[in-house]
Specification:
Blueprint lengths: L4 H12 L2 H16 L6 E5 L1 H10 L7 H11 L4 H4 L6 E9 L2 E8 L11 E5 L4 H6 L3 H11 L2 H6 L2 E13 L3 E12 L5 E9 L7 H14 L4 E2 L2 E7 L2 E10 L2 E13 L6 H9 L2
Parallel strand pairs: 4-11, 7-8, 7-9
Antiparallel strand pairs: 1-3, 2-3, 5-6, 6-7, 9-10, 10-11
Helix pairs in contact: 2-3, 2-4
């Protein structure tokens, strides 16, 4: 049956409101409903999304949590919200408990790869069938890091993947997701927990995610040493690894290395000699 005029109009409106645009309108509505002059923390609840959707006459997404998740990690804040940011500061969304959040004004903090770093070649041990069927950049990146034991190489540990896409709750934060989590041990017998963020080429490291990774590990693995890692594609087979920490409410880089995965035959004796001279 062909849609009538009213139905066609509804379909056009629904199509026009792509998820990102719909999410931004909902978040913008909540922000300006609760903002007050001089406030640096603006608490809100997931149920506020329902009120905002009713007021804006927008159909709610089935997964309400995805609205907040998208604005925390994937999508920039709405332009009107960005316009309220003082110089050197930015609005971020932090978890404040189960289904509770807060807009927080935080110092602008961007960690980007240092393109002047030398590149270290590693023999690529990724199974070809895995490379052929990875469904996303994030999935491909996590697989390459795992199969090439890049966490072991980078940190000097023997590590094991415990779980990927770990969803759990943290006191005072609410639900979080960690892309992959490793546990490891060093030659002194010290044991570690290593949460890994996976980032595509255009993604940026998030202070929110690094802070919540640290809080999660402190709560779930209190006896292990936590060493947060971010892995980022610079090109198809060029991967930047960062060890991160949070200091004075900023994400700081403890260590950064760039690795290129290549066929073993592409690593020359001259390159091996150079690696041998490095400490």
């Amino acid at each position: 049956m062909k849609p009538n005029g009213a139905t066609r109009g509804l379909l056009l409106v629904t199509k026009a409101l792509e998820p990102q645009n719909r999410y931004k309108r909902l978040i913008e509505k909540i922000f300006f409903d609760i903002s007050t002059p001089g406030a640096t923390i603006l608490p809100f609840a997931r149920t506020d999304l329902v009120d905002a959707a009713i007021a804006l006459e927008i159909e709610l997404p089935k997964n309400l949590g995805d609205v907040v998740y998208a604005l925390r990690y994937r999508t920039p804040m709405p332009d009107r919200v960005l316009a309220t940011q003082p110089e050197g500061m930015e609005w971020v969304i932090e978890g404040a408990g189960r289904a509770l959040y807060a807009f927080k004004l935080a110092p602008v903090n961007r960690i980007t790869p240092n393109l002047n770093l030398v590149t270290i070649k590693l023999p690529d041990a990724t199974p070809e069938i895995i490379a052929a069927y990875a469904l996303s950049d994030e999935q491909a990146l996590l697989a390459k890091v795992r199969y090439n034991r890049m966490i072991d190489i980078f940190l000097g540990l023997t590590s094991y993947s415990l779980q990927n896409h770990l969803r759990t709750t943290v006191r005072g934060v609410g639900q979080i997701e960690i892309d992959e989590i490793y546990v490891g041990v060093d030659r002194q017998g010290r044991q570690y927990v290593v949460p890994v963020q996976a980032k595509g080429g255009n993604d940026q490291l998030s202070i929110v995610q690094t802070k919540q990774d640290l809080l999660c590990c402190a709560e779930k693995f209190p006896h292990l040493i936590c060493r947060p890692i971010s892995a980022q594609f610079l090109a198809d087979d060029l991967i930047a690894l960062f060890e991160l920490t949070v200091q004075d409410d900023h994400v700081k880089v403890v260590e950064e290395r760039h690795y290129r995965l290549v066929a073993a035959s592409m690593i020359s004796p001259e390159e091996l000699a150079v690696y041998a001279r490095r400490s």
